[in-house]
Amino acid sequence: MIYVLRYAGKTSGIVFMLNISLTQCIFILSWTPNQNDIYVLFLMILGFALSQSIANGQVRGLYGIYFPNNPSAFSCATIGQTLGFISGCLATMYLCVNEKVYVYTLIVIFSLVCFVTIEIRQAKQREREMKLNKQQTITFDLKTIENLDNIRF
């Protein structure tokens, strides 16, 4: 899967993972369990495992991209994941399954909105940096040309 995501890009990996999660939330809310449909549970577990594995890899990769010189970013990711597990355990005591699925769906949609916002900001920042680098290169070239005019042969 990593090889596919390497060529497809981080955006397609995140969107694929969020689509899997939303599809499963819709399926869980509309599905009525049956004794003869035990294989459906295994397919759901497979889907959740797939989305979780993509999420772990992509989110850790995003932390490395967005915070390249900050090694504490990965520990913040681990703390955030731990807080998610704790809140999930606390929600188990007070919420029904349907309510938890709705909360999970809202978190997935919120994550998608945040990811798109961050990607737009990063694209604008890269564009500004490229313009700045171009301006510095042009300035350097002009100085080089001026210095060449001052040299007498």
- How large is the count of helical segments? 5
Order of helices and strands: HHHHH
Biggest β-sheet strands, sense, barrel:
none
**Weakly predicted, low-confidence segments:** none
The Cα radius of gyration reads: 24 Å
Please estimate the helix content: over 70%
Alpha carbon gap, first and last residue? 62 Å
- Integer average pLDDT: 79
What is the percentage of strand-forming residues? Answer: under 5%
Number of strands: 0
Shape: elongated
Structural class: mainly alpha
Describe this structure in words.
- With 153 residues, the protein is mainly α.
- Helices cover 88% and strands 0% of the residues.
- Helix 2 (10-30) runs antiparallel to helix 3 (38-66) and helix 2 runs antiparallel to helix 5 (97-150).
- The N and C termini lie far apart (62 Å).
Helices and strands, with pairings:
Layout: H1 2-8, H2 10-30, H3 38-66, H4 72-94, H5 97-150
